[in-house]
């Protein structure tokens, strides 16, 4: 698959051949859904917690006699049926992460890249660099490219000025190639890859 390469001035500066085994995979929504669920579950803190009866601060004394009162027998005022008592089977601190095989994770990234290419939402940039960390200058360049909601993926290292300039532009994300992931690719409308990113992703996924 051949695609044009542009620069930040929205000028065509050549073309690049994209590997079909990375950017031409059949789009599978089920694989994307599994991967997004995997990522979101893994990032959950899981720190929701309620107190059980043994954790509630309060008396350990039996509320009243077992027999003779005509009321239901009670063993503790910290039981769940009393105001301020513990919660039965409430949430506890735990990890929500679940396993997903490496083969499926690799396929999901290929499918995400291929879906952007198939939808015409893939842009290849010669390089993502900025002369100064000024947001206004970069925002003007992005408007020329009609990029209002995009994820930029660069090579192994980001250009410092570009990263700083883009940080204050809403709906614009910048990641190094090793940080490329399915969730961030899908949450932005356009995927912008530098030529270095294309080489790095193809080497990683082939």
Automatic annotation (TrEMBL):
<dbReference type="Pfam" id="PF00573">
    <property type="entry name" value="Ribosomal_L4"/>
</dbReference>
<keyword id="KW-0689">Ribosomal protein</keyword>
<keyword id="KW-0687">Ribonucleoprotein</keyword>
<comment type="function">
    <text>One of the primary rRNA binding proteins, this protein initially binds near the 5'-end of the 23S rRNA. It is important during the early stages of 50S assembly. It makes multiple contacts with different domains of the 23S rRNA in the assembled 50S subunit and ribosome.</text>
</comment>
<dbReference type="GO" id="GO:0006412">
    <property type="term" value="P:translation"/>
</dbReference>
<keyword id="KW-0694">RNA-binding</keyword>
<dbReference type="InterPro" id="IPR023574">
    <property type="entry name" value="Ribosomal_uL4_dom_sf"/>
</dbReference>
<dbReference type="GO" id="GO:1990904">
    <property type="term" value="C:ribonucleoprotein complex"/>
</dbReference>
<dbReference type="GO" id="GO:0019843">
    <property type="term" value="F:rRNA binding"/>
</dbReference>
<keyword id="KW-0699">rRNA-binding</keyword>
<dbReference type="InterPro" id="IPR002136">
    <property type="entry name" value="Ribosomal_uL4"/>
</dbReference>
<comment type="subunit">
    <text>Part of the 50S ribosomal subunit.</text>
</comment>
<dbReference type="GO" id="GO:0005840">
    <property type="term" value="C:ribosome"/>
</dbReference>
<protein>
    <recommendedName>
        <fullName>Large ribosomal subunit protein uL4</fullName>
    </recommendedName>
</protein>
<dbReference type="InterPro" id="IPR013005">
    <property type="entry name" value="Ribosomal_uL4-like"/>
</dbReference>
<dbReference type="GO" id="GO:0003735">
    <property type="term" value="F:structural constituent of ribosome"/>
</dbReference>
<comment type="function">
    <text>Forms part of the polypeptide exit tunnel.</text>
</comment>
<comment type="similarity">
    <text>Belongs to the universal ribosomal protein uL4 family.</text>
</comment>
């Amino acid at each position: 698959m051949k695609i044009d390469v542009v620069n930040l001035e929205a000028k065509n500066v050549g073309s690049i051949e994209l590997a079909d085994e990375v950017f031409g995979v059949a789009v599978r929504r089920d694989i994307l859904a599994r991967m997004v669920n995997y990522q979101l579950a893994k990032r959950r803190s899981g720190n929701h917690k309620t107190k059980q009866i043994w954790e509630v601060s309060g008396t350990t004394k039996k509320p009243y006699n077992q027999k003779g009162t005509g009321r239901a027998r009670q063993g503790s005022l910290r039981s769940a049926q009393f105001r301020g008592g513990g919660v039965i089977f409430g949430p506890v601190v735990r990890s929500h992460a679940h396993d997903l095989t490496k083969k499926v994770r690799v396929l999901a990234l290929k499918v995400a890249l291929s879906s952007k290419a198939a939808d015409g939402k893939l842009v290849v940039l010669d390089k993502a660099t900025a002369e100064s960390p000024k947001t206004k200058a970069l925002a003007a360049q992005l408007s020329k490219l009609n990029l209002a909601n995009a994820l930029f993926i660069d090579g192994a290292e980001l250009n410092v000025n570009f990263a700083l300039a883009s940080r204050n532009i809403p709906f614009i994300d910048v990641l190094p190639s090793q940080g490329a992931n399915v969730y961030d690719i899908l949450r932005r409308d356009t995927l912008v890859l530098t030529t270095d990113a294309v080489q790095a992703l193809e080497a990683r996924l082939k």
